[in-house]
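Exercise 3.2. Students should predict the tertiary structure of the chain below and write it as structure tokens, then compare their answer with the key that follows.

Predict this chain's 3D structure.
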Amino acid sequence: MLSLLLLLSLHAAPASAGEAPLRREVARVAIAQVRQMDPAWHPAQRDCAGFVRFVFRGAYRRWRPARLTTPLWRDARGEPSDFADAETLLAQSFAPLGRDEATRESLRTGDVVAFRLERDAGPIFHLMLVVRPEDKAHAPTRVVYHPGEPGTAVRTGVLQSLVTEAPLEWRPVPQNTAFLGFFRFKEWTR
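Answer key:
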């Protein structure tokens, strides 16, 4: 199933031809982590934000290595940085797209689904990468993510299953106050 999904996502047709290989590589790197985490991904960085950073860097390393001469991410002050936690990634490096069904239907590979859960120790942010094949008749849109706990594997699931079957706090629907919305890497919104 994951092989079919990867094959279908490799034929996606993004708006910009320059983005096409990057989005395909995001899908390839993300799905490869489900099969087996790359040892180059430092264990101390293995959480949802670390997953996003690792996957994007891998895509840029292959298709646009010159872009990596400066960091991809922005810190809380908006300065280039190699590290950004989930909250900072959303605030500084990703642009909000919306929270509704129409936005969900327009998602593309590399977009992010974001949540903020309130806990006694403070808020917890969680990010999931979208992998969307061009032909939805043959494979559904998926999310790929690291659950954040040390020693756990990268997981994948069908986006629509989150909408209908997940506990409310993990449903990407407007009624869920923990759902922050869908986001796109700012460099891909220009």
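Discussion points: Residues 1-15 have pLDDT under 50 and may be disordered. Residues 24 and 62 are 11 Å apart (CA to CA).
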